[in-house]
Protein 1
Amino acid sequence: MGITTTDTNAGKIKAYTCQFCHGSNGIAANPTYPNINGQNEQYLYQSMKAYQNGERTNTMGKMMKQQLSSLKNQDLADIAAYYSTMD
């Protein structure tokens, strides 16, 4: 990941658009969207990077790539840390 520290409070702020699909608590209301609460931090980060890089091209790939396009690595790491701490 290359990030030495993460900030879950910053992740909460940065994740404001994530909640529209993944829910404010990381549990998606729509069953076609994944629940991301409590997921492994590294997995979340790598998944977001894969969307950003166009490596995930499933149905939601283009939408996710657009959503993540303006975020930097630190932003992704903070968001991943935030959702990984949820129960």
Note: Residues 13 and 79 are 8 Å apart (CA to CA).
Protein 2
Amino acid sequence: MTGEKDTGISIWFFIGMQLLIYGAMIAGADLYHHDRPGMHEVVLKELRAGLWWGLCLFFLGVFYCWKFRPKRG
């Protein structure tokens, strides 16, 4: 079995895509809902936890997608 070429796509690439998408959704939701009045006020809203968490997930997803991208040729 030595010498065979791995032609599959790494599962970490798909996990990176999922992190990237979820990060963009969480950060976007925080940006959208930050200054809008709602039914419930969030305690410590000014810390923007959704924005920071979303950006962390987004950039982790970018890193995983770049690191484990499918090889061409």
Note: The chain has a mean pLDDT of 89.
